Amino acid sequence: MHQIACHACDLVQDIPPMPAGSSACCTRCGTVLFRAKVNSIDRTLAWTIAGLVLYGVAVTFPFLAMKSGPINQQTTLLSGVQQLYMQGENVLASLVLLTCLLVPLLQMCILLFIFIPLKINVRVNNSIPVFRLFQHLNAWSMMEIYLLGILVAIVKLAKMATIVPGLAVVAFGLLVFVLTFAISSVDTHMVWERLGGES
Ligand SMILES: [Zn+2]
Fold first, then answer.
1. What is the distance in A from the centroid of ligand 1 to the CA of 24?
2. Which end of the chain has fewer CB atoms < 10 Å from its terminal CB, N or C?
3. How far, in Å, from the CA of 4 to the mean position of ligand 1?
């Protein structure tokens, strides 16, 4: 319990421990005294860990299975990228590898690197430049575009062969949302304040 003075009417009042996301109003004039921040650290960590699990599933499980007569071909995310390289689409393969696989993984690793020490109150070297890198990485994550491309490809290929989306497609689709939630849970102002850097 701590005391706070209303900045509108100067009434001093006790503020009990408050649930995250709620706000306290002055008992006399109704002015908002204090807003409890939603627990950014726990939420970011939870979404990030969920994201890493989904990422593991998306990379290891079959992505698409294509059946056309006697031909039955199965691909994973990585074998898809490998196929692009083998077909000479080096630029496209590198872009897919970078924007859909490496950048999201790096983003999640950075979130763990920043938020686990914040959670357990430990200082880690280089967290300021790493967090700065994280803020630049968002522009390089294009998983949702890739997902859209996959959906278009499935619809088009469905006319020629039987396409069976694998578990990895579902995991990848969920990962797009989970990673968005993880990134939007980051309270940038709080992180910079805790790291002692300038935003
Ligand atoms: Zn008041």
1. 11
2. N
3. 10
